[in-house]
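re: ur question from earlier - yeah i can do the single chain one, its not a big deal. heres the input i used so u can compare w yours
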Amino acid sequence: MDPASTGGNFPFAFRGVRRRVGAFDFIAVHGGYYLLTLVFHDQAKSITEAVTGYEARLARADLPNIPFHSEPLINGHKDYANLGISQRKAMLAYFSSFVRKLPISYTTFAYRRSEFADLDKLTERMRRDISEERCADVAWLCRTRLA
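and the output i got, formated as tokens:
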């Protein structure tokens, strides 16, 4: 299976274990998949208003303003251990709303672990995919600016 560029939609449910290999910080996904997401922020567009709004919503709901980590949030681990399910659901909803308002785009690649002999081969494929994505992004930027 070639890694599917999902453009923001990933059809699989997953839980992962973080693992560092070379320049990549892997999340080993149960079910045999690895996910790689590239996030692009238009630096000319401020995110201050979106961040301020997100923080205000958390404060009004008496929820902690802590770094977002999906697995501990969903499962009630680590910083989220003392929060009830309704609080964690609210945090997830607030974060989702926040992200939708950001001037970002992203592409997610999915890799089936069984299709790579080892992590070096997987890393090599990820690097190639990142390079191809960046080249496509730069080509689009050049066409837009020259038009």
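The two ends are 37 Å apart (CA to CA). not sure if urs matches, ping me
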